[in-house]
Amino acid sequence: MKITILDDYQDTIRTLKCFGKVARHDVKIWNDHTKDLDGLAERLKDTEALVLIRERTPIRGPLLERLDKLRLISQTSVYPHVDVEACTKRGVILSSYMAPAQPSYATAELTWGLIIAAMRRIPQEVAALKAGKWQASSIGSGLRGKTLGICGYGRIGGVVATYGKTFGMNVLAWGREGSLERARADGVATAASKAQLFEESDVVTVHVRLIDATRGMITAADLARMKPTALFVNTSRAGLVEPGELEAALRAGRPGMAAVDVYEEEPVLGARHPLLALDNAVCTPHLGYVERGQLENMFSTIFDQILAYAEGKPINVVNPAALQNHPARSAGTPP
What we know:
Blueprint: E1 2-5, E2 26-29, H1 37-43, E3 49-51, H2 61-64, E4 72-76, H3 84-89, E5 93-97, H4 105-119, H5 122-130, E6 147-151, H6 155-166, E7 170-174, H7 177-185, E8 189-190, H8 194-200, E9 203-206, H9 220-224, E10 231-234, H10 245-252, E11 257-260, E12 281-283, H11 292-310, H12 322-325
Parallel strand pairs: 1-2, 1-3, 3-4, 4-5, 6-7, 6-9, 7-8, 9-10, 10-11, 11-12
Helix pairs in contact: 4-6
């Protein structure tokens, strides 16, 4: 089969052990990124199985209409970036393994890396030392005894709370009632309101899924309630914050710092994002789940889905109706 993998920014996939699963197939890997319709159509014109790395490239109807050879899209987790209806109409199978309830420890770990880096101003001090200076940045702050506010106490939020307790922080949670019940069951204090969470916390970290109901849920008013010494952390999705409001809040001094791993449009190239120009913002290029062990597990599943399709027995099919519309295949080709 002709397999195409999009958006492998760090050229990592071919180095994974599980890559051997598709060694006998014709695999093309793209390390750069484009959302240009004509460019994507050209890249994918001969593709039979398309591999997506999470939500990096949207796959919509106008593109699918130009991909006559495409038979399978293989990925893991949620698929808001894929036009499932268009896939079904064209007989393109979407195989996406929905992992059972388990946290992304990699994202929780990165969250804590950002918290410590921002509070102790580690990136600024590293840059200063390389420039020949010594203790040149404004002094940082420790975490013990301070309040960690968790907005959205789900699987990742629960792990982050555990790490916070280990660091001797007071943990405060806010979210939907189900989140609050989980927090209380874990012995975590809950805020009476979102306003209280933002006002009282020294660090606010957001762990909420981006859906229509949560888009823009963090407002300018929320950020303005934070202390001038406080840190706002977002390793979830940029769309949870009202557009432009975090940059404005940082310039206004409330909160005093931010640590961000996610952006409205990704990838961010040429340093073209206003947060990158602010000394009180620590920014990473969406590294939350990008960790070798997690990618090994993810792509082992993605490749298993392709092999199952090649054997005529597709698995983890999101749109089973596509099987009815699947184009007739020549003898000896699946399914």
